[in-house]
Amino acid sequence: MTLRTDHLEADVLRTADGSTLQVRAADAARLAPFEGEIRPDGDGHLLSGPLSPANAAALREAFAVLRPRPIGDTRTSVGTGDRLGLATAGQARAFRDQGAGLAPVLAQQSIREMDRLGRDALSVIDEATFGCLEEGWDGGFGADCDHIKTTEGIDRGLAAGFVTFTLDPGDHVVDVTGGITEQQLEQVPWEALGDDLESLRARYIGTVLDLGTQRLEITREAIDTAAVKYGAAVAEAARLFRHLTGSARHEVEAEIAVDETAWLTTFVEHHYMAAELDRLGVEWFSFAPRYVDGFEKGVEFIGDEDELRENLTAHHAISRLHGGYKISLHSGSDKFSIYPLAVAATDGHVHLKTSGTSYLCALEVIARHDPELLAQIWDISRAAYARSRASYQVSAHEDRTPETLEGVDTAALIAASDSRQILHVGYGVSLVASDAQGVVLGERLRRVLEAHHAEYSEVLAAHIGRHLAPFAAAAGETQERTDAVGVA
Q1: Catalytic: 138?
Q2: 441-to-136, 263, 301 alpha-carbon distances in Å
Q3: Which of 25, 58, 148, 388 is an S-S bond match for 425, by CB 3.0 to 4.6 Å?
């Protein structure tokens, strides 16, 4: 497909020999910002060039729709991570086909994933740029530098042009499952918080939280526990936010995430974090607490749906007490059974994040066209699972999966929960490993996907579309209500 301005038209061609950018212009001078070979083309000129950083930058300069933009706190939104840099076209097609009204985040990757795969932040933006062009996507998109834990990570994201930064102070969350001590209360970073214990208690004790289906009074024990558990995390999030806003030279937005911890976020603790972050001048469009159990990587929700409904409803009610930011669902891939529930519990004021599911779609294509490569990825992923699982919420067991893929139905393997999780979390080891000829498996995988890129895009559009449809329905209902109020 093609994007056009008054002076240019551009598209991306995918072939087994690689990918090429093509830009056409009547005036050859219009092609000067691009690198490549220029030749006459009818009444104008055609440039054929590489999918390079210079050409990605030139495209973003020429086409406003290819520049990442903040997604804000009003529209229902979905982030679709891409570990390989080849998924954007299919993901964008899913938004076109089944994601009407949603705000898409098509460039989304954590610093952790970038480092594991040897990717730099700019390449994530560039590959999303080319993917949008390939699909002719003109609906705009966000770019999320996900799970940032350091100011260095923020700087890398800013330099590349990311606009959304998911600030993750989870390493500073304290285990309070055994109760708290007076010493722990003293160790809360009161100075960094501009606070003291007496003032904290005076602000919170006796406050009643209206959670819609219940009312919850804050006790001394609950607020003391919240301060011990999340006080340092609040201070760290505020520090990261100040660095972000003080360093940015373009418009940015922040999400706060404490979901990648072992301990659930209570409703009082969510309220405490939101109130304290607000007091410290932090602004955010989305918040990811640690929900009830059941959010594992790459598989259906395996927890109690009634408990989740109550949990999300209360977290949404707390967000409304603090201005109405979105509730963010991380590890949201393939949780099809609970999407309608999540939409209803949050009134559609929700941000869904997916990532590894697009990689698993890639493995479906590899299984059909290079089963030997899939077998190597399986061997490495399975052997490394005990180490790889440490970073994720997963419960797969290697002993419930085949040691080799000889005679195995690979489509069924990729769909089965245990093997799906092993492949899901094994990407960081398998994609940087080399085969017997010294070829990096990630490069082999990219070549197969480029040779069959139309098929990969079709698989993605269908699979990601299943994620989007329930949220798009909510977005449409919200817009209908808004229009009705406007008419009235």
Answers
A1: no
A2: 30, 36, 31
A3: 388
